[in-house]
Amino acid sequence: MSMYLKLAWRNIWRNKRRTLITVSSIMFAVVFALFVESLERGAGDLFIDNMTRFHTGFIQVQDFRYEDEPSLDNAFFYDEDSFSERITANDSHIDFTVPRIETFMLAAGAEQTRGAMVMGTDVSGENRLNNLEDRLTEGRFFEPGDGTAVLGEGLAGRLDLAVGDSLILLGQGRFGMTAAGMYEVAGLVKHPMREMNNQLVYISLHDAQWLLSADDHITSLLVTPEHVRYADSVAEMLRSRLESDELRVLTWEEMMPELIEAIEFDRAQTRVMMLILYVVIGFGIFGTILTMTLERLREFGILLSVGMRRLKLALVVFIETVFISVLGVLSGFIPGFFVVLYFHYNPIMLGGDMEELVQEWGFEPIMPTALAPDIFLWQGLIIFIMTTVICFYPTIKIFSLNILNSARN
Questions:
Q1: What is the mean pLDDT of the chain?
Q2: For 5, 163, 276, 312, which has the most beta carbons within 10 A of its beta carbon?
Q3: What φ, ψ does residue 219 adopt, rounded to 5°?
Q4: Helices 310-345 and 373-390, packing angle to 10 deg
Q5: 270-296: buried (b, 16+ CB within 10 Å) or exposed (e) per residue?
Q6: What are 246-289's pLDDT values in tens digits?
Q7: Rounded to whole angstroms, how far apart are CA atoms 33 and 379?
Q8: CA distance 42 to 356
C-alpha cells in the first residue's frame, strides 16, 4: 500500500499546474462555504444574544405563577446572600446572577406622559450581562438607592427630558397599593432594541422595591452560565434545587418559543441556500476533475497497454484525487479562517431599507461572522466527501476505457 501512496503523491506533482488548478477550485469552494455558513451562524447568534442579554437572560428563576400572570403579586422573596449562595453553590458553570423587578407604569415629564417599563436591577450585574454602561450616551449610571433613574434615549425624547430633569413614575405596586415616585434623570442609554429604547426606565433594585412596596422581593432572577451551551444543564440543576420552593426555572428557549420558530425557519432557508451552493460548487469541481481526466486518457491507455491492471491503476488515481481533496480542504481553511476572523471583528454594515427594517425589529444593522470550530469541521467534511464522490469519475472511466482508442489520442 505504501508503494501506491508514493506513486500517487509523485503523480499529482508531475503536472503541477493541473494539480494547483484542481486544489484551487476546492480551496475557493471551502472558503466560500465557510463564509456563507459562518455569516448565517453569526447573524443568528447576534439575534439570540440581543434577545437574551437585553431582555430575558439565558435562564430565569420565577414564581411558578408569574409566567401565566406577570404581576407584582407573583414576585418571590429574595435574600441576596442566602439565595445566591444556594443557587451558585458547587456549580462551576454558573457565572453570575442578576436580580430584577419589572412592571409597567406611567412615566411623566413636565408636559408629556408615556407608558414605560420600569426595571429595578443590580447595576453591576446588569452591566456584566449586557455592558449597559458602554451604551450610556449622556450622564452616569445610578448608584444603589440614590434615587436616580436612567432612561432609554427614545423614551427621554418622547417625554422631553434631559439629564438633571425630574421623572415622575405612577402606577400600581404590590397587592394593589399605589406606587408613585419622583426621580432625577441621571443618564441616558441607547438600547439596541428600538422598542425597549422607547419605553425603558432603569432604577436601582432597592429603589424599585421601595417604590412598589415589594421589600426583599423580585419578579425574576437571571442566571448567566459560563457559556450558552451550559444553559440546559444549569437549568436542570436549578430545578432539582428549587423544586420545593414554588419556583420554576425557564431557559431562553422556553421563554421565547416564537424566537425558536423564527430561528428554525431561518436555518431551513439557509440549508436550502447551502444545498444550492453545494450543487454549484460540485459542478465546478466536477468540471475541473473532468478536464483533468480527459487530459490523462492517453496516459491511462498506455499504462493499461503495457500490462498494468485496471484495479491497481484505478486505486492509484483514486488515491491521487483523495490527496488533492485533502490539500484543497486544508488549504481552504487558512484563508477561510482569516476571512471569517476579519468579518467577525468588522461585521458587514447593512444600509438603506434593510438597515431601517432591521432596526424596526430592534436589532443592530450588522452581520458578523461566527468563529465556531464546528463550522470548519462540517464544511471541510462536506466538501471533502463531495469531492471524493466526484473523484470516483476517473476510476469509473478507467474501468470502461478502450485501450486502443485512448492510446491513439
A1: 82
A2: 163
A3: -90, -25
A4: 150
A5: beeebeebbeebbeebbebbeebbeeb
A6: 888 888 888 877 777 777 777 787 788 878 878 877 787 787 77
A7: 7
A8: 20
pLDDT at residue 224 tops 80 = yes
Radius of gyration of the chain (CA): 31
Residue 106 reports pLDDT greater than 90: yes
What length is written for the chain?
409
CA–CA separation, 180 and 304 (whole Å): 95
**Torsion angle, CA of 43/48/53/55, rounded to 10 degrees?**
120
Give the separation between CA 236 and CA 386, rounded to whole angstroms: 40
Q: Are 183 and 63 in contact (CB under 8 A)?
A: no
Q: What is the DSSP secondary-structure string of 329-387?
A: HHHHHHHHHHHHHHHHHSPEEP-HHHHHHHHHHTS-SEEPPP--HHHHHHHHHHHHHHH
2-16, 202-216, 217-231: range with highest mean pLDDT: 202-216
> What predicted TM-score, i.e. pTM, was given to this entire model?
0.68
- Among 154, 143, 129, 134, smallest CA distance to 220 is for 129
- Contact between 189 and 137 under an 8 Å Cβ cutoff? The reply is yes
Pairing between β-strand 113-121 and β-strand 200-204 as defined by DSSP bridges: parallel
